[in-house]
Amino acid sequence: MQSIHGICGKAARLALALASGLIMSTTAQAADWSVTEFQFLYGTEFQEPFNPNNVTKSIVTLQNASGFKYGRTFFFVDFLKSDQQGDSAGEVYGEFYPTFSLSKITGQKISAGIIKDVGVTLGLNYGAQNVGANPRVFLPGITVDFDVPGFAFFNVDFLAFIDHGNFKPNAETTVASCGGYKTTYQITPAWLAPFEIGGQKFEFRGFWDFIGSHGTCNAQNLTQTQLMWDLGANFGAASTIFVGVEYQYWHNKFGFQGVQDNLPQALFVWRF
């Protein structure tokens, strides 16, 4: 059986690789802005393929969004630990999305109506765990930025989903995800909407992945939405410390028909 130390080694290599890519794509291009977050989440009703039990997971996330001369990058790495109902599994999962603005590259404003820009996106999803899914997905495509009143941003990705992942149903067996290397589509709206109630500051943000069926995998949809209260604003540190809740819904998780996450998670965010 692969050890937790082995997973942590992969986690370290993944974090280093993605962080290096982030640093290269921002500092080398002279970042115009950058926002980094540490998040902690805790949920008790995760579902996993081939496991009838509710699994409790603790998740630590490092996340960064940055802007540079020709566009922006978005990057995160999740470190996950399951309880005994999930075989005490260790997991790591990361995504890296650089988007190159056609307006910035061409010097011509690419906009029409509520569309304020179009970009070329090159995405990578990568994960590793003891038993379960090990994603290896490439996601090239385009991103459309919309000007929506009340939203700090609202964009939609239209991507190819090139799946080179694998799945470990047990510690001794590894099979190709979806019956082999397959390609489909992913459409992802993402948003951030700040607002106030009674003088208190809040943020509502999230994304919704719509992933097509491919090979033996069923079509999936996954949303993670976060409602966060700006706790720091009450102590002279606005937009730094947040508490709230994340809701996760994942239909046909990893493409397995009928496997479904539908749960809230406690959320703490430190932004800097």
General description of the model:
The chain is mostly beta strands. The protein has a single domain (about 5-270), classed as Nucleoside-specific channel-forming protein, Tsx-like (Outer membrane phospholipase (ompla), Chain C, Beta Barrel). It contains two helices and 15 strands. The strands form two sheets. A twelve-stranded antiparallel beta barrel has the order 1-2-3-4-5-7-8-11-12-13-14-15. The longest helix is centred in the first third of the chain and has 23 residues, at about 5-25. It is globular and about 50 Å long. The N and C termini lie far apart (about 40 Å). Residues about 1-10 and about 25-30 have low confidence and may be disordered.
Q: How would you describe this structure in keywords?
A:
272 residues, disordered N terminus
What percent of the residues sit in helical stretches (DSSP H or I)? 10-25%
Number of strands: 15
Distance between termini? 39 Å
Q: Give the strand line-up of the largest sheet.
A: 1-2-3-4-5-7-8-11-12-13-14-15
**Can you count the helices?**
2
SSE run: HEEEEHEEEEEEEEEEE
What's the mean pLDDT score? 91
